[in-house]
Each structure stands twice: as C-alpha cells, then as structure tokens.
Amino acid sequence: xxxxxxxxxxxxxxxxxxxxxxxxxxxxxxxxxxxxxxxxxxxxxxxxxxxxxxxxxxxxxxxxxxxxxxxxxxxxxxxxxxxxxxxxxxxxxxxxxxxxxxxxxxxxxxxxxxxxxxxxxxxxxxxxxxxxxxxxxxxxxxxxxxxxxxxxxxxxxxxxxxxxxxxxxxxxxxxxxxxxxxxxxxxxxxxxxxxxxxxxxxxxxxxxxxxxxxxxxxxxxxxxxxxxxxx
Amino acid sequence: xxxxxxxxxxxxxxxxxxxxxxxxxxxxxxxxxxxxxxxxxxxxxxxxxxxxxxxxxxxxxxxxxxxxxxxxxxxxxxxxxxxxxxxxxxxxxxxxxxxxxxxxxxxxxxxxxxxxxxxxxxxxxxxxxxxxxxxxxxxxxxxxxxxxxxxxxxxxxxxxxxxxxxxxxxxxxxxxxxxxxxxxxxxxxxxxxxxxxxxxxxxxxxxxxxxxxxxxxxxxxxxxxxxxxxx
DNA sequence: CGGCTTATTGACATACGTCAACTATTGTGG
DNA sequence: CCACAATAGTTGACGTATGTCAATAAGCCG
Lengths: 231, 231
Fold this sequence. Notes:
The structure is a homodimer of 231-residue chains. The first copy, chain A, is of the alpha+beta class and 231 residues long. Chain A folds into 2 domains: 2-148, Sandwich (Jelly Rolls), CATH 2.60.120.10; 151-225, Arc Repressor Mutant, subunit A. In chain A, 41% of the residues lie in helices and 25% in strands. Chain A contains 9 helices and 12 strands. In chain A, helix 7 (180-186) crosses helix 8 (191-200). The relative contact order of chain A is 0.13. Chains A and B meet through helix 3 and helix 5 of A and helix 3 and helix 5 of B.
C-alpha cells in the first residue's frame, strides 16, 4: 500500500477515463489514491459495503462476484488491465452490489470516491468519458442477460470463445484468460457443465488443450451459437 | 405523430433527466421531438437498427425485447411512465441491442439522437443527470444477472413480487403491471413455468387472483427467496 | 353469448446440477 | 529435478428444474 508514483501516473495519460483529465487535475485526483499490489484470490471489497473507492485495474484481472445466501456465488463480470469498475456505486454513493476478488496477481488503483465524484461534477470532459464508459458497460451486461435467457450452456461458451477470437477468419486459436472454474461461473454454469459444453462444441470444430482453445471452424461455431454481431 | 405541445412540455419540468434543463434548452431540444400515441403491441424499433431517437415513456409501458435467431424472444426489461430508455445506444451512436414493443397503450416521446447527444456534451447538468440515470440502470441489470445466475424460477418470481410490495409490512397486495406471459419472459422462464412458480409460492403465503397478488407472509417469502435488500 | 386470446395443468423430454471417483495440472520442498 | 501434495478439471451416474407439447380452463371483448 503506497501512494501512487509519478512514473505510474504517466501511464494513465492514455487511459479512456483518466486520460481526459489535465495533468494537473489528474495529479490532484490521484494524490490520495492508493495502489495495491495483491496476489490472486484477494478480496478487494464485499457486497453491501459502502463504495469508498473507484477501482482501476492497472495489471492483472478482477472478478465481480455476486452472492445471495453466503453459500452460492457467481461471477458477474471480469475486468482486466485498464478497466474501471464499480463506478455506478461510486457515482450514486450506494453500497456495492457485488464483491470483488482478484483472479490473477494484480495491481489495483483505488481512487477515493468523494473527490472522484466531485471531479465528475465539475469537469465536463471527465463526465462525458464517464457517460461513455457507463454506456459501454450497460451494453456488455445487456449482452449477458440476452445470453443467459436465450442460449444454452454450450452456446454461451461458444459465444464467449468467439468474442475472444477474430471472427472474420475461418479459424483461430484463443487463450482462455481465466481458470475454467471461474469461467464457468461467469457463463452461468457449473465447472462440470463447462467441461461438457466443451465436449459438445467439438462438433463445431472446437478443441482445447489447457488454456489454448483451437477454433477450427468459426463459421460453424457462429451458426451453432446463433452468434450475435451487435457490439 | 405530431410535434410536442407546450402543455405537454410543461409536464417534463419535474422529469429526472429533462427536468434539469433550462426552460429554453428544453424547448430547443424538444422542438424536433415526436410524440407517438400507440396501442399495446406496437414495435417501436428493432434490434440492429441504428439509434435514431432517445425514448421517454410518457404514459403506458414498454418492453425491451432481445432476440437471437428470430424465433426465440425474451424480455430484458420493462419501462414505465417517466422512464428513459435506450440511452446508451444513443450516446455511443451504436445500433440498438434490443427491440422495443409497447405492452400497454402508450405515449412515447422520441427525442432525436443527435441534438440530444450534443446537448449532453455541452450541458453539464444534463450530463450529470445522464450519469446518474445510467448508473441506476446498470444496477438494475446487475440485480437481474445475479437473479438469473443464483436463483430458481420461484425465487425470481418471489423477488419480483417483493420488489412491487412494501417489504416493511407483514403482508400486502400487489398488482401485476403486465400480462403473465410477458412477465414470464422478463423473469427468464416460460409462461407454463411461471404458473408452477406461483403454485410453489403458495407455501410462502402467495395467492393470486387475476392480476391481484396477495402476499400473506412477507417475511416467509423473503426467507424463501433469499431476498436481497441492496438497492 | 360466442369466439379469441391468455393462463393453467398434465405428461413427458431434456438440460443442467450434484455427488463421487478419477485424472491432470500446478506448485513446493527435498 | 524429482516426488509428492494440493488444486483444478473431467467423467459417469443420477436427481431435479425447467422446457415442450397438447389439452383444458379461464379471461376478455365484440
């Protein structure tokens, strides 16, 4: 836990959100920010806590985890390097709806909620960037809801694989960015069922070895998944 | 199809989003807006079309409908009087991810996308209101994703009923705002399964006659649903 | 009142979850 | 670098929730 360094500040210049700030504003905003370096599996905050920090993934990977009765858990979404998460809770000063846990060794930037909120309120450029970011996030979730309601487990897996691939090609290789168990929960199924989903996709030219997944017939896979081009 | 009248403009003064505009700005923005009055079942736009209008429900009720292969359809969300929908597509100038259909006789205000976007970019108060609205919408969807991934069909129905009720009370009566078939799709199940979900909830004190639903034991229902207070 | 739509019920099919055993992979200390 | 433990993933057997189809019943509207 340390205050953010100048050189690291530099790297944020090109950031979707923080990059729109002036050098000065960025410095002021980040003055009280923290940078945490933590191993895979660390819990950053828990569902129900009040939103004290806006989080930015500097390195690594984070899962947002929803739980109902303290027993069942699911992964709502992953965020990776450069992604900002939990902004709606920060903007609305509401408690987190989910917990967050690193799924890789990660560096996370924590920006205190209040100064961030104040900056959004007074800085039009930042506010506009926030609007765009929130809009993108909304559309990601919409796709997920449609996925859950309209597609079977193997189709959800196939769509996910396609989202990692260059779908203009006939074939390709993708690398799973997360462990299968986590991926299963993100896709709304059990690890066992994820295995079976991989098996079912063999007919559509999907082979996997470790984290490498070979897509030998992308058109067939798209057909099978009723894959939806809209982004 | 007619240009919006002055008296109707008046009613928007108290609106979450449009109410933050100055009289002048509101007039300018709404000058080219349209007000449609249409029966239940009208399609407002289709998934994949480019976003030409921001939509505001003045009266009635609208369903956002997601479809995959032109055969299967689901309801992603309902919007009611006062709600604004499809803002992310408008802000990002992206195609709609869903279709929209009235589920009641409705009056809808259509605000042309480009002037709205320009107003957001130049008007800090509006932009801030947009940020709040997007944040609220995000959190609604998060709750839905958690629902779909963590709860059974009867639990989802129960949670939905609780969201309509005053949960501080011991019991209450709620009115279903939509037809059961539509509600079933919103909750991610078939109409047949919705019927069965109602039956299963009888043990938790739920009786329904027509659109009236009596909740006789709200604490028991909350317990059964693992209902989540976070809003 | 009759005809149309919507909701319910029953019988059945299927997808998915669960549990347990087994296998593969990863990480660690000798 | 190996051996072994710990963890993660797979497979099979089985149970359950939910979807499907068809028949019936209930609302709704002219």
